């Protein structure tokens, strides 16, 4: 990885931002977007691009990337062209900008030719502020001619990591982006991404010829997200309880590995009174698009999805992301959990994880296509993910370190809130490993975890009897631990590379490191398996949108939400396009009595004030 010091300084959370005072950019921020101050590096980025400089911006999801190109597009003469792979979301992006009074349009393959012609005519006439463009349109000479006929203020390259062939979202069309610089050398370019690994970053710079662009690397911390990873028991029940106790009525995303479990989980939640819809590649296009649209538009819907869901979903009020299966990499986990809490309000990233996840992932790696080097890569990704799951120290620190950033114990993850106990598991580890060893040495046999644990527990079940395993010396030497505890031992040994698992049947085998435990006195520290996880003290209400609100404001907030839902429905836009939760919270707390006062609330710009101001005041006075 490239050392972080090759880049601009990491922003700190304590950066107070800069008051909007003078300057065209700050004026736009206040008047159009209704915000008082830029966040973190935004001001510097905006000023750099307004002045015509190229920029590479790395910010986590929810960090505020959009403003970095939207404000310069409004300040510079001409039209900001935004290249984005998220075709399905362009309409929503344009709607959100229109609600702010920004003139925006898009060009992609979903349009009828006459719609496209209208947008092109607006572009040439300079009647747009922002144009969203699908990358495949860059291959067309007509697009280049269009750019020549209108005035381009800047090129924004969103999801810039899509240009990287090693990344997980490679789009061949993105390679065509190199023409921008060659053909329009005077137009500033700003490339943005939330993917942080050094390799991808370097590839973006190289492929987009951004060598002399200024780089802005924000902190990747998402302080409002509470990270929690719990032992998997009955995942459906655990999920239900998690939602009911902490996130009833909230919007959330539940990730599962297979389509089958997506369907089952969505049905289970629905049966239990939670509004949930499935999303996976096996659904027909219409249903899939419909479910996504419902998720974006309705308040408090849960979507159960495979990882195919969510890229570019900029719904700001997703209150939780739950994983019922182990993600394949920390990058994937971080990207998926990052979809929670873009509005900065408290949110939860919750996951359950167990022995079978490890077995299953190893199996998938064993049977994956590609060469040994590729499998090795997958293995490294998995190991990092397992290390995160098994850590006894702060999860956030571990995440940040993974992205080459420093961090201090956060106080808002499960290991900080209820520090796990560790215990000396050397003897149990030796018992388990020697059982595996004996079977191999004495009988030439290998078995899966379940059977090994049965031997340790001295269970005379049919399989044990059939193989005469009750005659082994190790039979019944492990009755001091319960079944669930033994499974925890196996899982942690696997995660730590002290044991290996192979093949379709998940048979356990020893590794080099196993021998150190068996013969060289290597100590094994394990994490205690909680019987049942009790919620961290602050977790019970961690994610509710109403957390931290004065009780008296809650009913006002709820009434504002109802008004917002009705207004959004009437106008056919997602609720957050009207106002974000954060804005409604502030209104509920301050209860402005005039339009002027309302206009000073964060997120209430000129246009929204004119459009919704009276409606909001009516809700407030209609007590
Ligand atoms: P990203 O694209 O990096 O995921 P967004 O651009 O969607 O993030 O911004 C995330 C959220 O933060 C949005 O709700 C946005 O309105 C809000 N936001 C961004 N910048 C500011 C700011 N300077 N002040 C207040 N809110 C902001
Ligand atoms: Zn922590």
UniProtKB/TrEMBL annotation:
<keyword id="KW-0547">Nucleotide-binding</keyword>
<keyword id="KW-0227">DNA damage</keyword>
<keyword id="KW-0449">Lipoprotein</keyword>
<dbReference type="Pfam" id="PF00270">
    <property type="entry name" value="DEAD"/>
</dbReference>
<dbReference type="Pfam" id="PF00271">
    <property type="entry name" value="Helicase_C"/>
</dbReference>
<dbReference type="InterPro" id="IPR004589">
    <property type="entry name" value="DNA_helicase_ATP-dep_RecQ"/>
</dbReference>
<dbReference type="Pfam" id="PF00570">
    <property type="entry name" value="HRDC"/>
</dbReference>
<keyword id="KW-0479">Metal-binding</keyword>
<dbReference type="InterPro" id="IPR036388">
    <property type="entry name" value="WH-like_DNA-bd_sf"/>
</dbReference>
<keyword id="KW-0862">Zinc</keyword>
<keyword id="KW-0347">Helicase</keyword>
<dbReference type="InterPro" id="IPR002121">
    <property type="entry name" value="HRDC_dom"/>
</dbReference>
<dbReference type="InterPro" id="IPR010997">
    <property type="entry name" value="HRDC-like_sf"/>
</dbReference>
<dbReference type="InterPro" id="IPR006293">
    <property type="entry name" value="DNA_helicase_ATP-dep_RecQ_bac"/>
</dbReference>
<feature type="domain" description="HRDC">
    <location>
        <begin position="550"/>
        <end position="623"/>
    </location>
</feature>
<dbReference type="InterPro" id="IPR001650">
    <property type="entry name" value="Helicase_C-like"/>
</dbReference>
<feature type="domain" description="Helicase C-terminal">
    <location>
        <begin position="235"/>
        <end position="386"/>
    </location>
</feature>
<comment type="similarity">
    <text>Belongs to the helicase family. RecQ subfamily.</text>
</comment>
<keyword id="KW-0238">DNA-binding</keyword>
<keyword id="KW-0067">ATP-binding</keyword>
<dbReference type="InterPro" id="IPR011545">
    <property type="entry name" value="DEAD/DEAH_box_helicase_dom"/>
</dbReference>
<dbReference type="InterPro" id="IPR027417">
    <property type="entry name" value="P-loop_NTPase"/>
</dbReference>
<dbReference type="InterPro" id="IPR018982">
    <property type="entry name" value="RQC_domain"/>
</dbReference>
<dbReference type="Pfam" id="PF16124">
    <property type="entry name" value="RecQ_Zn_bind"/>
</dbReference>
<keyword id="KW-0233">DNA recombination</keyword>
<dbReference type="InterPro" id="IPR014001">
    <property type="entry name" value="Helicase_ATP-bd"/>
</dbReference>
<dbReference type="InterPro" id="IPR044876">
    <property type="entry name" value="HRDC_dom_sf"/>
</dbReference>
<protein>
    <recommendedName>
        <fullName>DNA helicase RecQ</fullName>
        <ecNumber>5.6.2.4</ecNumber>
    </recommendedName>
</protein>
<keyword id="KW-0378">Hydrolase</keyword>
<dbReference type="Pfam" id="PF09382">
    <property type="entry name" value="RQC"/>
</dbReference>
<keyword id="KW-0234">DNA repair</keyword>
<keyword id="KW-0413">Isomerase</keyword>
<dbReference type="GO" id="GO:0004386">
    <property type="term" value="F:helicase activity"/>
</dbReference>
<feature type="domain" description="Helicase ATP-binding">
    <location>
        <begin position="46"/>
        <end position="214"/>
    </location>
</feature>
<dbReference type="InterPro" id="IPR032284">
    <property type="entry name" value="RecQ_Zn-bd"/>
</dbReference>
């Amino acid at each position: 990885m490239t050392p972080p010091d090759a880049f601009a300084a990491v922003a700190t959370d304590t950066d107070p931002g800069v008051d909007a005072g003078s300057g065209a950019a700050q004026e736009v921020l206040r008047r159009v977007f209704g915000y008082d101050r830029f966040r973190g590096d935004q001001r510097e980025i905006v000023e750099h691009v307004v002045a015509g400089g190229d920029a590479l911006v790395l910010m986590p999801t929810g960090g505020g990337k959009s403003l970095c190109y939207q404000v310069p597009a409004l300040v510079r003469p001409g039209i900001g062209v935004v290249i984005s792979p998220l075709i399905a979301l362009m309409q929503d992006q344009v709607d959100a900008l229109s609600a702010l009074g920004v003139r925006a349009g898009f060009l992609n393959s979903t349009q009828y030719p006459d719609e496209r012609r209208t947008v092109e005519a607006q572009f040439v006439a300079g009647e747009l502020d922002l144009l969203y463009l699908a990358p495949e349109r860059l291959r067309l000479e007509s697009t280049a001619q269009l750019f020549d006929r209108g005035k381009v203020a800047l090129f924004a390259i969103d999801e810039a990591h899509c240009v990287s062939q090693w990344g997980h979202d490679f789009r061949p069309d993105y390679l065509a982006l190199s023409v921008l610089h060659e053909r329009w050398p005077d137009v500033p370019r700003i490339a943005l991404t939330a993917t942080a690994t050094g390799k991808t970053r370097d590839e973006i710079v190289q492929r987009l010829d951004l060598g002399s662009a200024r780089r802005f690397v924000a902190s990747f911390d998402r302080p409002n997200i509470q990270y929690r990873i719990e032992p998997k028991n009955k995942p459906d029940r655990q999920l239900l309880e998690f939602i009911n106790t902490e996130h009833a009525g909230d919007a959330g995303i539940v990730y599962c590995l297979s389509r089958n479990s997506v369907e089952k989980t969505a049905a289970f939640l629905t049966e239990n009174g939670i509004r949930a819809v499935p999303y996976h590649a096996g659904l027909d296009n219409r249903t899939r698009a419909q479910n996504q649209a419902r998720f974006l538009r309705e308040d408090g819907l849960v979507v159960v999805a495979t990882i195919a869901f969510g890229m570019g979903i900029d719904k700001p009020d997703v209150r939780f992301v739950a994983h019922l299966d182990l993600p394949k990499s920390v990058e994937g986990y971080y990207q998926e959990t990052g979809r929670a809490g873009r509005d900065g309000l408290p949110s939860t990233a919750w996951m359950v994880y167990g022995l079978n996840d490890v077995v299953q992932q190893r199996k998938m790696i064993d049977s994956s296509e590609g060469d040994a080097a590729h499998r090795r890569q997958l293995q490294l990704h998995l190991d990092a993910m397992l290390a995160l799951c098994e850590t006894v120290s702060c999860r956030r620190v571990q995440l940040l370190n993974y992205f080459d950033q420093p961090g201090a114990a956060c106080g808002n993850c499960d290991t900080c809130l209820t520090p796990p106990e560790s215990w000396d598991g050397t003897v149990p580890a030796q018992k388990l490993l020697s059982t595996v060893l004996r079977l191999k040495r004495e009988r030439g046999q290998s078995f899966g975890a379940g059977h090994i644990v049965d031997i340790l527990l001295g269970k005379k079940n049919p399989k044990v009897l059939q193989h005469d395993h009750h005659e082994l010396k190790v039979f019944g030497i492990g009755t001091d631990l319960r079944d669930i505890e033994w499974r925890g031992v196996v899982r942690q040994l696997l995660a730590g590379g002290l044991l290996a698992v192979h093949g379709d049947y998940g048979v356990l085998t020893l590794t080099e490191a196993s021998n150190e435990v068996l013969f060289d006195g290597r100590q094994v520290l394990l994490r205690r398996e909680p019987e049942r996880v009790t919620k961290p003290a602050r977790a019970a209400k961690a994610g509710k949108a109403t957390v931290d609100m004065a009780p008296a404001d809650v009913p006002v907030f709820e009434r504002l939400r109802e008004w917002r839902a009705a207004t959004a429905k009437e106008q056919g836009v997602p609720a957050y396009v009207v106002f974000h939760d954060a804005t409604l919270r502030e209104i509920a707390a301050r209860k402005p009595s005039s339009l002027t006062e309302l206009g000073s609330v964060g997120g209430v710009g000129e246009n929204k004030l004119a459009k919704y101001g009276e409606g909001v005041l009516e809700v407030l006075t209609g007590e």
